[in-house]
Each structure stands twice: as C-alpha cells, then as structure tokens.
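Customer escalation, tier 2.

The customer says the design service returned an amino acid string that "doesn't look like it belongs to this structure." They asked us to rerun it and document both sides in this ticket. The original structure tokens are below, unchanged.
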C-alpha cells in the first residue's frame, strides 16, 4: 500500500470538498477586490499558488523534454487567462451567476459535434438559462460582467483540451505546478500596472495565502486524488453541482441574493451539464475547478 494514501478521502467526498473549497476561495477573492482589484487579486492568488506548488511538488524543470514544454506552456497560459477573466466577471456579477455562465464553456465542449436529438434538449436548457440571466431591459446584471464570465467559460473549454494533452505527456502534479508558473505570465503585467500589489500588507498576504490554498492548492490536490478511482463521467456530473454551490456560497458568505429567474437559470445549466454528461456516447473530459 502506498504511504501517500494514508490521508486520502473517498473519491466523492473529495470532489464535494473541492467544490466547497473553490467557492470559499472565490468569496475570499471577492472580499479582496475593493483593495486589490481583479488584476491584483488574480496575481496574488496565482503567484502564491505557484510558490506553494513549487515547494510541495518540486517539479524537475531541467528534465522536461521539448514535447512536454510545448504542452504545459499553453496549458498554463490558458489557466492564467481563465482565472483573470473569471475574477473580472466576479467583480461585476454575483458569484453564482459568474460560475453558472462560465460553465457554458465546458458544456459546449461536451456537446460539440454531437448529432443526437437529446443533446438539443441540453442546448435549449443552457440557452434558456443564459436568457434568464441576461438583462433584457438594460438594468440589473452588468453586461460586461456577463461577457467576462462567458469569455472565461470559453477559456475553460480550451484549458480542458490543453489539460488533456498535457496530462498525456506529464504527470498531473507536475503539470499543475509548472502550469501555474506560466499562468502568472499573462496576469502579472496587469497586476503590476494596477499598482495594487504595492498596497500589500501582512494581513492581505495572509488572505492571499488562504485564497491560494482554497482556490488552487487544495481543490487541485483533491481532484487529482479523486480522479485516480472515480470515472471521468461521474466526476463531471459531480462538478456540475458547482454553480449551485457558488450561488449558495454567494448567498451565505457575500449576502448575494438571486432572483427566482436567476435561480432557475442556475438550475437549467446544472441540469444541462449533468444531462450532457449522463447521455454522452463517449468519454467526456474531466472538468477541473476554475
């Protein structure tokens, strides 16, 4: 028996704890926005996450082959852009809606190329969810925030594809640790330009460490542990609960209250995501946390 499994959780509780951890981290991030802004908060999270993962994983950068570099660099860049766009959305719209709209990316990836009639149902449900969130009368939800969330979803789909390619040539922990280094490349210039990183205090650094642990280090570790024994399809169905967890987290931790129509939108997209996974005719990519 491998000694590394001594502290492991069963697969399903590990995924559920990962979801709770990510949404708790998002609540911490939103609390930092008034002081650091989305760019500074993203830079702090990714920078500290990269440092923690480098210490814990100790990737052997010098031993990587060219094919591994070609895979992990774009994977890391996509990870950084995805997180930055998500935080830009989170600064403008409630947490539950930001995560719900972001889920459109992986859902679209799961449905792309399908010609089965049942998948039309999932597309229509997702479209209905987006329609319920959209501010048709020009009031309420921030349009730019919606655009950022959908763009983050598009990056999430790209991230999943690149993550699959990276996982084929590099072990999971190594890929995440090295990818996080490159995730900082497209984000740090915005963080430095904002000037917010100059405002860091010991208290803000402590919050940054908590943000890095809850949003990156802990969920990535739990998800990798779960995927060792959990079928990809089951994992993806469990991850479909994330918009609901985000909405509840926003309500409990940030006092963000959704309208009945917005709760319906969350429900529609969750059902569409889980349904698309359940009825898939081929193995679907695992959906990692944002």
């Amino acid at each position: 028996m491998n000694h590394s499994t001594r502290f492991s959780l069963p697969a399903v509780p590990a995924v559920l704890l990962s979801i709770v951890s990510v949404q708790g981290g998002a609540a911490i991030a939103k609390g930092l926005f008034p002081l650091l802004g989305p760019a500074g908060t993203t830079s702090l999270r990714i920078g500290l996450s990269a440092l923690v993962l480098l210490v814990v994983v100790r990737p052997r950068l010098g031993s990587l082959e060219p094919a591994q570099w070609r895979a992990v660099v774009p994977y890391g860049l996509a990870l950084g852009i995805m997180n930055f766009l998500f935080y830009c959305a989170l600064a403008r719209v409630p947490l539950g809606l930001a995560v719900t709209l972001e889920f459109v990316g992986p859902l679209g990836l799961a449905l792309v190329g399908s010609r089965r009639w049942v998948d039309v149902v999932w597309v229509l449900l997702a479209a209905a969810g987006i329609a319920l969130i959209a501010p048709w009368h020009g009031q309420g939800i921030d349009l730019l925030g919606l655009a950022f969330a959908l763009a983050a979803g598009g990056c999430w789909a790209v991230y999943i594809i690149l993550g699959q390619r990276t996982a084929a040539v590099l072990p999971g922990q190594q890929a995440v640790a090295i990818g996080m280094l490159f995730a900082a490349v497209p984000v740090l210039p915005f963080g430095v330009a904002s000037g917010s990183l100059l405002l860091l205090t010991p208290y803000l650094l402590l919050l940054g460490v908590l943000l890095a642990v809850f949003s990156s280090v802990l969920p990535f570790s739990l998800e990798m542990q779960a995927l060792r024994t959990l079928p990809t399809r089951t994992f993806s169905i469990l991850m479909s609960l994330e918009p609901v967890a985000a909405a509840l987290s926003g309500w409990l931790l940030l006092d963000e209250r959704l309208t009945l129509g917005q709760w319906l939108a969350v429900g529609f997209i969750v059902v569409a995501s889980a349904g698309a996974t359940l009825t898939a005719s081929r193995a679907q990519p695992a959906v990692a946390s944002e």
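Tier 2 assessment: The sequence is consistent with the input. The two ends are 32 Å apart (CA to CA). The chain has twelve helices and no strands. Sent an explanation to the customer and offered a walkthrough call.
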